[in-house]
Amino acid sequence: MTLRRLAIIIAIAGGLLLVPLIANHTVEGFDWSAFDFAVMGGLLIIAGLAIDASVRRLRTPASRAAACGVVVLCFVGVWAELAVGAVSKLVAAIGLGFSPPRARRPPGSGAGGQALGAVEKTRTSTGCPTATSRLRVYLFRHDRRRSPVWGPEERSV
Fold first, then answer.
1. CA 7, CA 153: separation in Å to the nearest integer?
2. Confidence (pLDDT) at 45
3. With contact defined as beta carbons under 8 Å apart, do 117 and 136 qualify?
4. Which of these, 2, 39, 1, lies nearest to 17 by C-alpha position?
5. What is the pLDDT of residues 2-19, one digit of tens each?
6. Greatest CA span in the chain, whole angstroms?
7. What is the distance between the alpha carbons of residues 47 and 146, in angstroms, rounded to a whole number?
8. Domain ranges of the chain
9. How does pLDDT run across 90-131, given as a tens digit for each residue?
10. Residue 65 and residue 134: Cα distance in Å, rounded?
11. Quick one: 48 exposed, middle or buried, by C-beta within 10 A (0-12, 13-18, 19+)?
12. What's the pLDDT score for residue 142?
């Protein structure tokens, strides 16, 4: 890898990052932080280096196209996972059984090992078909009168 090739890859990544930079200032609701730009720049540079390596090392045009296609698919997959968790949602929808280990409940989270709060099955409100999840729902009603935990002078209504 020559320094010139690396400079070209970095320049292309920087040029592609101009699109979200302009959108960040003009489109309402588009809000990338410096960390988002750094992660995307790193992804673009890694994808560019992988494409450059596959083009330089592989001989036939078919193998070059296949390798570049794999690199682009991997890039899009990582991008979609970082943006909205699309890959993990797809894996959950297919039912491959990859789920994070269950966290232990801290002592005192409820009587007899039961957790406090109601457990309900919920669905996301994105409009996309997703698997149901178990979500702990707490309902706090501020209009109830409580026993004398507070004195009458401390209670604000």
1. 69
2. 95
3. yes
4. 39
5. 899 999 999 999 999 999
6. 83
7. 59
8. 3-94
9. 777 776 655 555 555 555 555 555 545 544 444 545 555 555
10. 43
11. buried
12. 53
> How far is it, in rounded angstroms, from Cα 135 to Cα 121?
6
Residue identified by tokens 């280096």 is 49
Give the CB-side neighbour count of residue 19, counting CA atoms within 13 A.
Answer: 6
In one-letter notation, the amino acid at residue 44 is L
CB atoms within 10 A of CB 147: 5
Residues 12, 40, 76: CA angle, nearest 5 degrees: 90
More confident residue, 132 or 12: 12
Query: How is residue 127 written in tokens?
Result: 């409009």
Among candidate residues 100, 77, 102, 79, the one with its CA nearest the CA of residue 90: 77
Tabulate helix, strand, coil % of the chain (nearest 5). Answer: 55, 5, 40
DSSP state of 103: P
Strand partners, 133: 122
* Cα 76 versus chain centre, distance: 13
What's the rounded mean pLDDT across residues 67-79? 94
pLDDT of 77 strictly over 60: yes
Cβ pair 12, 48 in contact under 8 A: yes
Which one is predicted more confidently, 82 or 53?
Answer: 53
